[in-house]
Amino acid sequence: MLLHLALFAVLFIGLWWTRSATPAAAGAISAELMDASQLSSAMRRTLRQVPAPLPVEEVEPEPLPEPLPEPVEQQQKPQDFIPVPDDTNQEAVTEQPTPTPAKEEKPQEAKQRQEQVDLTEQERQEAVQRNQRMVEQDIQRQKQLEDIRKRRAAAAHEAALAEQRLAQLANARSRNAAEDAAQSDAQVSGANGVDEGLKARYAAALQAAILAKWTRPDTVPLGATCKLVIRQLPGGQVMGVEIASPCSYDEQGRRSIEAAVLKAQPLPYAGFEPVFSRTLNLNFRAEDR
Predict the structure, then answer these.
(1) Which of 10, 56, 139, 219 sits 20 to 30 Å CA-CA off 121?
(2) Domain boundary residue, one of 194, 209, 234
(3) Going by C-beta distance under 8 Å and a sequence separation of 6 or more, which residues neighbour residue 237?
(4) What digits encode the pLDDT tens for the residues 108-163?
């Protein structure tokens, strides 16, 4: 409704303006006001008609300006240390002596210190190993010295035995002539000149002396016999012993009886001079001691 009234007013003013703008050269124009009721019906219809609205030009909107790039917010560096408010009484702090800050060790100094520690540890280990080698060498040296002492003692014992045998041989040679003469006299006298009882006691004494030094092997049964040929000197010194037939002993038994004869020397001699013989045949019998 308001739009209609506005259009009517505009039309009315336009008509009035057109009339008032007529050039004066055309002469005076008389105007007369009229009531709207005096207008003709055609005029009134014309005035009531609403003029068609003028087409509105579509104005293309101006393009919006491109937004400026947002400034990149610079990231703040992380703080290495966030200070913590100190609520310590500053007056009390000022009374205490300020501690001297510890000198920070440089990387090069720390490296040199570590190298010195490693070198010291290496030297300590080398010293321990060196001492251990010295101890082992000393033990080995002691073993070698002990072996040398044992060999020397064995050699000295063998030398003493050899000297003893030589002395016995020398002493025996001095009596050979008289003893040989006595034995020759006994043989010339024949069987009637031999004391069979003394000869039997001599054989029993030899059996007992050898049996005392013999350890019977389990392979030699009791009562087994073995013939021994013993070479001896006056005084009972044994020069050698051999196994003769018959002998029922095995190899172990034969070695054991030979060793027993050598251990039993000097063999019985005193009191058996009339029946003594340098080569003695003895039938040894295995018995318990």
Answers:
(1) 139
(2) 194
(3) 165, 168, 169, 172, 265, 266
(4) 888 888 888 888 988 999 999 999 999 999 999 999 999 999 999 999 888 888 77
Average pLDDT over residues 235-255: 91
- Are residues 279 and 203 part of one domain? yes
176 shares its domain with 242: no
Q: Verify that 222 and 232 share a domain, yes or no.
A: yes
User: What string of DSSP letters covers 78-117?
Assistant: PPS-------S-HHHHHHSPPPPPPPPPPHHHHHHHHHHH
What are the angstrom distances between the C-alpha of 8 and each of 2, 34, 40, 263? 10, 16, 17, 174
DSSP H or E stretch at residue 232? strand 225-232
Q: Give the number of other CB atoms < 10 A from CB of residue 50.
A: 9
Backbone angles phi, psi at 243, to 5 degrees: -95, 130
H helix intervals, the chain: 2-20, 41-48, 90-95, 107-188, 196-212, 251-264
User: pTM of the predicted model, to two decimals?
Assistant: 0.36
Segments forming the whole domain that contains residue 152: 115-194
Cα separation of 260 and 287, whole Å? 13
96 has pLDDT over 80 = no
H or E element in which residue 285 lies: strand 279-285
Q: For every residue of 238-272, which 3-state class applies, written as one string?
A: EEEEEEEEEECCCHHHHHHHHHHHHHHCCCCCCCC
Specify if 43 maps to a domain.
no
What is the CA 101 to chain-centroid distance, rounded? 45
Number of domains in the chain: 2
